[in-house]
Amino acid sequence: MSQAFILRDYQTQAVDAALAHFRRSNDPAVIVLPTGAGKSLVIAELSRLAKGRVICLAHVKELVEQNHAKFLATGSQAGIFSAGLGQKDSNTKTTFSSIQSLSANLDAFHAPASLIIIDECHRVGLEDSAQYSKTLAHFRSLNPDVKMLGLTATPYRLGNGWIYQHHYHGYARPSAQSFFKKCIFELPLQYMVKNQYLTPPIHYDAAVAHYDFSLLTESLDGEQNTDDIALNELIHQHPRVTKAVTEQILQLSQDREGVMIFAATVDHAKEICGYLPEQQTALITGATKIKQRDALITAFKGKKIKYLVNVSVLTTGFDAPHVDVIAILRPTQSISLFQQIVGRGLRLSPGKKDCLVLDYTNNGYDIFQPEIGEKKPTPDSIAVQIHCPQCDFANAFWGRKDAQGHILEHFGRRCQGLIDTPVGETQCTYRFRFKHCPYCNQENDIAARQCQHCNEKLIDPDDILRKALNLNNNKVLRCAAITPVINTAEKSIKITYHDEDGLTLSETFRFNYKKARQRFNDLFARRIASGTQSVYFDSLNELQDFLPYLPTPDFVIAKKQKHHWQVTERLFDYQGPYRKANSLG
């Protein structure tokens, strides 16, 4: 029987991408669709088209119920296996199940499946990893060729990384251990808004006060390992902020229908509720009992409650189209999670023109910004596009720009582009930041401990510094600047290193010697403009115009000789506990 609904163009493209991928491969694949894009319709259509048995997994009963309902709209029948929904049907051709219920009852599923679909698949490998691993291994034992497809709006999690390895647009992700091998389709949020599939977000930037979460030393990823004690202490240091913020939310939402407020901690959420009208406010946390939670959500969806305050429980699997205000009072260093939160208010609803986004955390994210896959290295970092000089792939990295919009620096390490080779696609080898192996002189990641080329152990820069600091005949310079001077007569360039107190060290590279010329190019030329230019100097004349752009190392180490100090190490791109020049300790 044909489906009783019509897929949008991008939903059809997602379905076609999955069919094309699984016709040629059994590798687990991912489809990335923004919140509100209708993943359940893609799941329904793929389940309808599958010739064999289909198992559709989700981590909350609301998603199980929602995906099941969309599938019934195709005119086909399916079963539900979920303790939370009070149904355990394991014998139908298509079964929608919660991962918790199915993983605990694998003996009820003894027939092989041809397709496993995982909604919110970014959770594979996180707190549900044991359940998913056991379940997927079970179905692979029944059918080694079972196809596995994940769908998510957030393919990246701080602390865990990207959930797939390769992207169909031709770039790699640094995630060799991820379960999913390839992202086969992705739709940007901007496309959804531009084509009126989602409500436009209006970022209101007139906050009366902000929380300065940058004071926290804890690395916050939005969902895992958040230090509630540190958060509460910071929030309680500024009691007037919460009151002022809540009053502004009330003022700006007077003519709005549904307000979702994302709090940092349970104590914080309770304080927020204390400033909101009691009869129009509900609070949901991880400790809220299921029946009470269901009743509160039903009341909110029915517009009997206007303000819904929550703590890390309604970022996924929640659908209330009338929501037209999103207030963010909690920190996150994840662009994906920020977009997921805002996405709760972007669904279309009759009479809804836009969604007001109130960010009181100074997150500074653009809702349409691509996920970079790293924490912001500096508060003023923004997404920049950096072309690889080797393969010309346009990388998205964190970077800094000046007032005119020119890129001052970027923080990318390795090109993410994929290169076609006789054995298939492989990641481009070009590195923007690197450490040289002292044994084979090949480039490695700056955090690598073993050379990927010769397998020799790479010396840890912290060990180098620690050893140098403990030896009387060594000098360690926190380098703040360099002065390069060319001596044409001697065919050499002298580099003088300056520390923050005016002390100096120097060394000379003689360009009439091949090894010295190569050493200079390895150290300096390769790092000009953070490696965004492919530069090599054969002569001092070529070098002259580039002197202002030579990079400065973070540390320089010299060893005492009879009458002078000989530079032995220059540490670039240092990341560690030792303070660099002109930075607070």
TrEMBL record:
Keywords: ATP-binding, Helicase, Hydrolase, Nucleotide-binding. Pfam families: Helicase_C (PF00271), ResIII (PF04851). The keyword ATP-binding applies. Its EC number is 3.6.4.12. The keyword Hydrolase applies. InterPro entries: Helicase/UvrB_N (IPR006935), Helicase_ATP-bd (IPR014001), Helicase_C-like (IPR001650), Helicase_Restrict-Modif_Enz (IPR050742), P-loop_NTPase (IPR027417), Ribosomal_zn-bd (IPR011332). SUPFAM superfamilies: P-loop containing nucleoside triphosphate hydrolases, Zn-binding ribosomal proteins. GO terms for molecular function: ATP binding; DNA binding; DNA helicase activity; hydrolase activity. Residues 20-173 form the Helicase ATP-binding domain. This is DNA repair helicase RadD. It comes from Paraglaciecola mesophila.
